[in-house]
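Technical annex, item 7. During the second reporting period the consortium partners agreed on a shared format for inverse folding records so that results from different sites could be compared directly. Each record opens with the tokenized structure and is followed by the designed sequence. A conforming record, contributed by the partner at site C, is shown below for reference.
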């Protein structure tokens, strides 16, 4: 299954848990791996979950939390 990587300004496990919860609710997402120290999130999902859809969900969280979010290059 394809992986999508995001750079997320997580500062604690609370942030990581929120990201996991938000992305984990999406159809097609099978795994969400977070690394607070690296400020990275890797999402394993089938083709039904687009990276753009994931980014939109994270940006909505970003607006509320003040954390940065970007799709990794």
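Designed sequence (site C submission):
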């Amino acid at each position: 299954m394809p992986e999508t990587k995001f750079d997320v300004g997580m500062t604690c496990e609370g942030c990581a848990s929120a990201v996991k919860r938000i992305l984990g609710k999406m159809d097609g997402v099978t795994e969400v791996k977070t690394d607070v120290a690296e400020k990275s999130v890797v999402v394993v999902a089938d083709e039904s979950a687009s990276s753009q859809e994931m980014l939109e969900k994270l940006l909505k969280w970003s607006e509320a939390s003040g954390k940065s979010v970007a799709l990794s290059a």
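The helical segments are 13-24, 51-65. The longest strand covers residues 29-35. All partners now use this format for quarterly exchanges.
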